[in-house]
Amino acid sequence: MATVLSVSGSPSATSRTARLLRHLDARLRAQGHEVIPFDVRTLPPEALLHADLAHPAIVEAIAQFERADGIVIGTPVYKAAYSGLLKSLLDLLPQYALAGKTVLPLVTGGTTAHVLAIDYALRPVLHSMGPAHITPGWFTLDRDITVADDGTLTVAPGPTEALAQVTDQFSLALGGHPTLLAATG
Length: 185
Fold this sequence. Notes:
It comes from Streptomyces flavalbus. By secondary structure, the protein is an alpha/beta fold.
């Protein structure tokens, strides 16, 4: 199966975005994919700030993008756009870092007024990096993502179904098996 890099662009250690990605990572693993979680916030701030392409953490991040067959990009919405942290990473990647890759964009936000952030802010940047395919993405409202005291994630029923569908479409684009998808749905 495919290797998937699951990228969280949230600056928060308790991010709903990152938790949602880890939830979807489990679905992709159940479908036979190798999933590598990557939280941009773990990169050294000085390496991002100074665009230090020789920094070992940046070199490794670029290598992870190169090794992956598919990339899931998750970000919270800030000021109707993706996070500045994600922008810092995307700016450091080679121009065609997504060449030949299948990409799934996911966005979380506090209001439906930000739903177009996927298509008008994130998708154009991803497209400029040369992916083979950008699958339909999904915007999830913060209020539809609940984290219990024990860390268990619950997503409201409507978004759960939609997220399963876009994740499965991404998996199929990577060569996933439809019968396996139905069994984990």
